[in-house]
Each structure stands twice: as C-alpha cells, then as structure tokens.
Amino acid sequence: MTIKTTWQTKHFSALSLNQLYDVLKLRVDVFVVEQTCFYPDLDGDQGLLDRHPQTIHLLGYQAEQLVAYLRILPKGQNYSNNVSIGRVVTAPQARGCGLGNELMTQGVALCLQEFPNESIKISAQQHLKVYYQKHGFTQVSEMYLEDDIPHIAMIRE
C-alpha cells in the first residue's frame, strides 16, 4: 500500500517552529549522520541561504511526518547565473517507493513556476547522475569532491 504524500511550499518566514525542526532534523539525520559527512548544514552567512526571502522550501509529508524535502535557491545565491535545487533528501523509512522521483518532479515544476525561463543547476552526488538525467539534467563539470563525496555539476535548461 502506497501512502499518499502531501506537499507544502514555504518560505522561511512561513515555516512553523515544528516544521523548521523537522527539516533540520531530517537533513542532519541523512547528510551528517547517515552519510557521515560533517559539515555546517546551516550554510551561507549565518544560515542566510535557508532564510533568503526568495528561497523556497518544499516539504513532503506522509501521515503528518516529514519524509521528503528540498530547497530552491534563487539565482545569485548558490550560483551567480542559475537557480539551484539542493538539500534533496528522503527519510530512510520512505525510500524505495518512488518518493525521490516525486520530490524532484515537484521541485523542478516549482522552479519553472517561480523562476520561469531560468536554468536550474545542481551539485549532484556522482553516483546519482542517471537519476538526475531522468529529470532533464545534463552533466556540465568533471567530478569534484564536496565534503569528501564525489559530485558533478548538472544543469537543466
């Protein structure tokens, strides 16, 4: 049985304290603990990437539990000439049922709606290249290390 996912789109100022806590916990649980990658998740100058007024947080809930998340940064924040999708994450218990594809589909659609005619750039873990290609992204860099994990830059025009 597939559990229905409900999606919420929020700017930082509209996140409740519980939503913010859930987002940060999911990101830390996966990116820091599961992937054993110790880095400052609250990035930018004092966490300003998360708090930028045009940053969009996409939250996916199943049975009132946050199970999927990504954030969209406007042009000029992560990349000078591109909108960016990042912090793409699904909770371990929700994997294997297509939720990641649904998350990326929602994220790309949101970018096209909020930032029309802008290309989208991502820093993708190299082993996920084919996954992102299925969502219209093309590799535009050689492999580089980000937090000791092989990554590639990809763009969706």
Task: List how many beta strands DSSP finds.
Answer: 8
Task: Characterize the quaternary organization of these chains.
Answer: single chain
**SSE run:** EHHEEEHEHEEE
Strand content of the residues, in percent?
Answer: 25-35%
Bin the helical content.
25-40%
What is the molecular shape?
Answer: globular
CATH topology: Aminopeptidase
Structural class: alpha+beta
Question: What is the mean predicted local confidence, pLDDT?
Answer: 91
Radius of gyration: 15 Å
* Main sheet makeup: 8 strands, mixed
Instruction: Pick out the low-confidence regions.
Output: none
* Name of the CATH first level: Alpha Beta
As for the number of domains, it is: 1
The helix tally amounts to: 4
CATH superfamily: Gcn5-related N-acetyltransferase (GNAT)
What does this structure look like?
There is one protein chain. The protein is α+β, with helices and mostly antiparallel strands. The chain has a single domain (6-117), classed as Gcn5-related N-acetyltransferase (GNAT) (Aminopeptidase, 3-Layer(aba) Sandwich). The protein is 27% helix and 31% strand. It has four helices and eight strands, in the order βααβββαβαβββ. It has helices spanning 17-34, 48-51, 99-114, 129-133; strands spanning 6-10, 56-62, 65-73, 83-90, 120-125, 138-139, 144-146, 149-156. Strands 1, 2, 3, 4, 5, 6, 7 and 8 form an eight-stranded mixed beta sheet that branches. Helix 3 (99-114) links the parallel strand 4 and strand 5 (120-125). It starts with 5 loop residues before the first strand and ends with a strand.
